[in-house]
Write a structure and sequence with these properties.
Number of helices of chain A: 6
Strand order of the largest sheet of chain A: 2-1-5-3-4
Number of strands of chain A: 5
Strand content of chain A: 5-15%
CATH topology of the largest domain in chain A: DNA polymerase, domain 1
Number of helices of chain B: 11
Helix content of chain A: 25-40%
Structural class of chain B: alpha+beta
CATH superfamily of the largest domain in chain A: [2Fe-2S]-binding domain
Chains: A alpha+beta (about 170), B alpha+beta (about 290), C alpha+beta (about 775)
Oligomer: heterotrimer
Helix content of chain B: 25-40%
Distance between the termini of chain A: 35 Å
Radius of gyration of chain A: 15 Å
Strand content of chain B: 15-25%
Largest interface: A-C, 65 and 62 residues
CATH architecture of the largest domain in chain A: Orthogonal Bundle
Largest sheet of chain B: 5 strands, antiparallel
CATH class of the largest domain in chain A: Mainly Alpha
Distance between the termini of chain B: 46 Å
Number of domains of chain A: 2
Shape of chain A: globular
């Protein structure tokens, strides 16, 4: 089980990293690339805290081998905001609506929410709840999270941001 | 907890896939989405010395639709891609709606339809609807290829008719039959996101008020997704009155062979088979697509 | 009133007036200062920290429920390249520890098993290695020879004659008794028109905080230890780590980074805290442990399963005459926080209603299950499930509306619980009246439909505990406030925000006292070496009241100095009241006589030859009984529809009216309510740690089922505002009581809908269908 060197684009930056085949993407992001915004809550794809975009698609990075990301593009929560001072509208809405408590599910929630809004900018409440059903939260009862996402529907800003981030161009 | 050690191959062609598998088929796991494979490697339910990833093989991710020949879903086509595919939505809505109930958005953006079938879980949610649509699988080996009906492809829990050195290149669905009504129902007593306690896919045509081409397929209530042949026969050629539907539902209950797990007991699953079969058939008769 | 499914307009902080009359921060829907770091992924949790040279730790756990350890041989593990340290129970001091320092006999745990293991998952050895693969490989090389012993897995089994003893010191497996007696119970039952007795059992559930436990330790060259750990109680961890490592408390520094939830599950010293610290000292390198979710679910603390028998006496008119409760707690292999739960179940058994005569017999029973611990509500969810279900059944049989029956017996301000407390503020009656209106109770009860039902349950809860079981010699809460001549302030406190938002609330309290804005307050917290001694941490819904009072104490001392400056500068008559507001210190009767706060600070410093202006504040509850300084109340109605074919109960809507005193930040209060409903919906319907002879069968989040966003019912809530004299600005708890009524309210609604009366949680479709006569 020799380490392999993989090259991937993370949040727009080309990165090379040597990984053993049994390393998962979340482990590589956190332990090797020091992108600790992505959380590991279960390791079995059930909690969604590790959600990242792989070639623009939201996936569980704990169910993805790091070697699978070779030659591909990964966006993590650190790459969602357009700049260090400006946030993605979903991030702003989470803050304003009190959708954050302990914050451990938050990076994954934010990533799932932004992915939904880029796919369905006019999502209604059932769609939001369905889209977030792969992200567990133990603090908020999801109420304010759903409110925050719905607040982004209709202002039009999320679609563009989400699409850009989803393509790894943000 | 870490994944066990294994070697990794990412071939670009089918020939390279077979070369990588070589004579190590029994020590090899093919990786499509990995959403079932990785947890089962971690828990020790599956073991392997090497993982061969199919993602890099050109063409395996295709979804092709032709009104004459039907639908072909490549081995690496994602559940989400199939769910969102316009032809699937228009011509095979039962498949799209079944995928929508399967796991989560994140899993559907990583997992594949073929992987769901090859994982050979009794509760694979794509199996009953694809069986109801009469799907076949295309099996490719180093030297030849052949097709098998999906009904029968899964031979037991985590076992299929695929030989270790073969792979499933695609699943083939016959051309759409506009008169065929189909429905998929799934039930978990605990959550909207859960492995099915019971699932039912049903299909039939109504011809002059009589039920024809009846197919009833059950998930999670036998070692494999199963055809409820007696239940279908109880309805075939008859006017689907509520008495006839009740009889078919009771027959389905009688022919399923569930086991108790912590989602539901054997007896409860039997009961659910009857309830869900009845609801599915009623939905078809009352105007299912 | 908030309708949860209708998003309110986003609050715009900029819309608040920047000048004009100072606006109170109390009751504002303020967003949290830590939210920005959390939405960008910048917030640092323990497992996010990597130190140079860091080693990875892993725990070896017992695969058997009850056994003697005959032999441990770690030589092969030690010989594996990359392994830097392996420790077993023989390598470390066998010091017994536990949170109950007041009663040392109750401290029954050692950090690693010495001669015996008592549950599947009991910590036996630990490894530190250069990477995770090596650490896990080393675990497999440690040879342990177990001599299995007969084991017990249920309270009655454990109490039976001849049952194997989990601890030799307790041959009867009885760890602890708690008795409460007041009033003449025999007389009460003799005089009763109606008596009923019911037995209820509740099940084990997991906190399922999203952040698995993690600890990272570094040993300094002088032998001192720094430990970063995911904890609710940095002070307890500091004290107990010092004790188990035979260090002085001041030689241990505990830092609490951001914590991803705790709910009671992170309030003890845990073996990985110790092992990280010990092995860091042994190797000279930092050591980090992070638990897997499987470890958390299979071996972690859990809510106590309890068997409760309740006997209650009424007059025909519904007046409660007396109540007798017995509770048997399944504690698992060790005490943990169990003694407290045994006490509290007794208190919660008679805290909502006037019960003139009461007898409680609680026992804490050792079994070979994984140990239980504190979990949100801590005894109240179990006690109130039993008590409220019984109230509903009694109402039915007495022919009295369940809300009327409660109104008849409801606690009121000034009522005393003998030997426990006197109720201060209490809006319970108003909660009942309002929830009746909010839920359309009367109309729905008059026109019942099959498969549909409303159910009600209520709660009362503590705002922090009085009983000093940790035997601290410091104040329960402490705060230090410094003000600066730039008009800002610094608050330093060990009060532990684990996600509930107490950091914001404490800043809000200080900003309100000093007339500043939230952004004017710098908070220093979560570090035992930097914060004043002490704060007992986050549990028992204590932080807002106790730490909030400490903050006010310190702030008022600072204000007093600032007031002197205004008085001096304007030569004010001594009868002037001086206030802080809008960034100024001013005379209330002549607001034009004012000084910017920073200038007042500068004056005060000049007057004291440069000495910084700061003050320390403290709070320790005194003369408020044995349980709590203040009590919250609330009433909740569940609207449930049951699919009579599948048996599936689906909650259509929750209605809640509660009394948390002054709502300091309604957005934070709503967050507590909404989160409580999720956790308690799971407790009622979908969550259960399934056990087979001590083994947890469903140790993944696939198989242990938390409600997801799609499973949540809409929720409507209102608050009854009371003013709690013991609390800061009239506030009391809102974090835990709300976790109690949901399960009994749903169970009552299911009873109304189907006739099924749940005596054994959780409520499942199979139980409902069996009641309906289905043979399944």
């Amino acid at each position: 089980m020799e380490p392999r060197t993989i090259t991937l684009t993370v949040n727009g930056d080309r990165r090379c990293v040597a990984v053993r085949p049994n390393l998962t993407l979340v482990e590589a992001l956190r332990d090797e690339l020091h992108l600790t915004g992505t959380k590991q809550g279960c390791g079995t794809g059930d909690c969604g805290a590790c959600t990242v975009y792989l070639d623009g698609r939201p996936v569980n990075s704990c169910l993805t081998l790091a070697v699978e990301a070779d030659g591909r593009s990964v966006t993590t929560v650190e790459g969602l905001a357009p700049s260090g001072t400006e946030l993605h509208p979903v991030q702003e809405a989470f803050i304003a609506h009190g959708a954050v408590q302990c914050g451990y599910c938050t990076p994954g929630m934010v990533m799932s929410s932004a992915a939904l809004l880029s796919r369905e900018p006019a999502a209604d409440e059932p769609s939001v709840r369905h889209a977030l059903a792969g992200n567990l939260c133990r603090c908020t009862g999801y109420t304010k999270i759903v409110e925050a996402v719905l607040a982004c529907v209709g202002d039009g800003s999320c679609g563009a941001h989400g699409a850009a981030a989803a393509e790894g161009k943000a | 907890m870490r994944l066990p050690a294994f070697d990794y191959h990412a071939p670009a062609t089918l020939d390279e896939v077979f070369a990588a598998i070589g004579d190590r088929g029994r020590d090899t796991q093919l990786l499509a989405g990995g959403t079932d494979l990785l947890p089962s490697l971690r828990s020790g339910k599956r073991r392997c010395r090497q993982v061969v990833a199919l993602k890099g093989v050109a063409g395996l991710d295709a979804i092709r639709f032709d009104p004459e020949t039907g639908l072909e879903i490549g081995a690496c086509a994602l559940l989400a891609e199939v769910q969102d595919n316009p032809a699937v939505r228009e011509h095979y809505p039962v498949l799209a709606s079944a995928i929508r109930t399967l796991a989560t958005v994140q899993v559907r953006h990583k997992a594949t339809v073929v992987g769901n079938l090859c994982n050979a879980s009794p509760c694979a949610d794509t199996a009953p609807p694809l069986m109801a649509l009469g799907a076949r699988v295309r099996i490719v080996g180093p030297d030849d290829q052949h097709e098998l009906p999906l009904d029968g492809f899964i031979t037991g829990p985590r076992r299929t008719a695929r030989e270790p050195e073969e792979l499933i290149s695609s699943v083939l669905v016959p051309p759409p039959d506009p008169a065929l009504r189909t429905v998929f129902l799934k039930f978990s007593p605990r959550s909207k996101v859960d492995i099915s306690a019971v699932s039912v896919a049903a299909a039939l045509r109504l011809e002059d008020g009589l039920a024809r081409a009846v197919g009833i397929f059950l998930g999670t209530v036998a070692p494999t997704p199963m055809r409820a042949a007696s239940a279908a026969a109880a309805l075939e050629g008859l006017e689907p009155t509520s008495e006839v539907i009740d009889l078919a539902a009771r027959t389905a209950r009688g022919e399923c062979q569930p086991v108790t797990d912590f989602r539901a007991s054997k007896e409860y699953k039997q009961h659910l088979v009857e309830v869900l079969t009845r609801r599915a058939l009623r939905a078809l008769v009352e105007g299912g697509a | 009133m908030s309708e949860a499914r209708t998003p309110p307009a986003a609050p715009d902080p900029a819309a608040r007036p920047v000048s004009g009359p100072p606006e109170s921060l109390i009751g504002q829907r303020l967003p949290r200062p830590d939210a920005r770091a959390k939405v960008t992924g910048a917030a640092i949790y323990t497992d996010d920290i990597q130190l140079p040279g860091m080693l990875y730790g892993a725990m070896l756990r017992s695969p058997v429920a009850h056994a003697l350890i005959k032999r441990i041989d770690a030589s092969k593990a030690r010989a594996l390249p990359g392994v830097k340290c392996v420790i077993t129970g023989q390598d470390v001091p066998a010091i017994r520890y536990g949170n109950w320092r007041l009663v040392p006999e109750l401290q029954d745990e050692t950090v690693l098993a010495t001669d015996k293991v008592r549950f599947i998952g009991d910590e036996v050895a630990a490894v530190a290695a250069v990477d995770k693969d090596t650490a896990e490989a080393a675990l497999a090389l440690i040879e342990v020879e177990y001599q299995e012993l007969p084991a017990v897995f249920g309270v009655d089994e454990a109490l039976a004659d001849g049952a194997p003893a989990v601890h030799d010191e307790h041959p009867d497996n009885l760890s602890l008794r708690r008795d409460i007696d007041y009033g003449d119970l025999e007389q009460a039952f003799a005089a009763a028109d109606y008596v009923r007795e019911d037995t209820f059992t509740t099940h084990a559930v997991s906190h399922a905080y999203m952040e698995p436990c993690s600890a990272l330790a570094r040993a300094d060259s002088d032998g001192r230890i720094t430990l970063w750990t995911s904890t609710q109680t940095p002070y307890y961890v500091q004290c107990l780590l010092a004790r188990t490592m035979e260090l002085r408390e001041n030689d241990v520094r505990v830092i609490k980074p951001a914590v991803g939830g705790g709910f009671g599950g992170k309030m003890e010293l845990r073996p990985w805290d110790f092992c990280a610290a010990w092995m860091a000292r042994e190797t000279g390198r930092p050591v980090k442990f992070t638990l897997s979710r499987e470890e958390e679910l299979a071996t972690g603390r859990r809510r106590h399963p309890v068997k409760i028998t309740s006997k209650i006496a009424f007059r025909q008119d519904g007046t409660i005459l007396g109540k007798e409760v017995t509770a048997k707690l399944d504690g698992g292999g060790y005490n943990g926080m169990g003694p407290t739960a045994t006490f509290l179940i007794g208190n919660f058994g008679a805290m909502l209603y006037k019960v003139p005569a009461y007898r409680y017999r609680g026992i804490y029973v050792y079994t070979n299950n994984p140990p239980a611990g504190a979990m949100r509500g801590f005894g109240a969810p179990q006690a109130l499930f039993a008590g409220e279900m019984q109230m509903n059944k009694a109402a039915e049989e007495l022919g009295i509306d369940p809300i009327e029956l409660r109104l008849k017996n409801a606690m009121e301000p000034g009522d005393a619980i003998p030997g426990v407390a006197t109720i201060g503020s209490c809006g319970f009656r108003e909660c009942l009246e309002k929830v009746r209106e909010l839920s359309g109770w009367d109309a729905r009860m008059a026109a019942k439909l099959p498969g549909e039902g409303l159910g009600i349950a209520c709660y009362s809860f503590i705002s922090g505990g009085v009983f000093n079981w940790f035997n601290t010699r410091y104040p329960f809460s402490s705060a230090e406030v410094k003000v600066f001549d730039d008009g800002t302030a610094q608050l330093t406190t060990l009060a532990a925000d684990i996600g509930q938002g107490s950091d914001l609330i404490l800043c809000q309290i200080l900003a309100e006292e000093l007339g500043l804005k939230i952004e004017d307050i710098r908070l220093v917290t979560g570090d035992t070496a930097a914060c004043p001694q002490s704060d007992l941490g986050t549990w028992g819904s204590r932080v807002t009241l106790m730490a909030g009072n400490a903050v006010r104490d310190a702030a008022r001392q600072v204000k007093e100095r600032l007031a002197e400056m205004v008085s001096l500068k304007f030569d004010l008559n001594v009868i002037h009241e001086i206030a802080c507001g809008g960034g100024h210190v001013y005379s209330k009767s002549k607001p034009s006589r004012r000084i910017p706060l920073g200038e007042a600070v500068a004056m005060a410093q000049r007057a004291n030859r440069g000495r910084p202006l700061k003050a320390s504040g403290y709070y320790t509850p005194r003369d408020v009984g044995l349980v709590s300084p203040a009590f919250s109340f609330g009433a909740q109605v569940a609207d449930v529809r049951v699919d009579l074919e599948t048996g599936l109960p689906e909650v259509q809507r929750m209605f809640t009216v509660h009394d948390c005193g002054t709502e300091l930040n309604p957005m934070a209060v709503e967050g507590q309510l909404e989160g409580s409903i999720q956790m308690s919906l799971g407790y009622a319907l979908s969550e259960e740690l399934l056990m087979d002879r001590g083994r947890t069968l469903n140790a993944t989040l696939l198989d242990y089922k938390l409600p997801v966003a799609e499973d949540m019912p809409p929720s409507v809530s209102e608050t009854v505002e009371t003013y709690e004299p013991e609390g800061p600005f009239g506030a009391k708890e809102a974090g835990e009581g709300l976790a109690c009524p949901t399960a009994p309210a749903i169970a009552h609604a299911v009873h109304q809908a189907t006739g099924y009366f749940c005596r054994e949680l959780p409520i499942t479709p199979v139980k409902i269908l069996r009641h309906l006569g289905r043979e399944i």
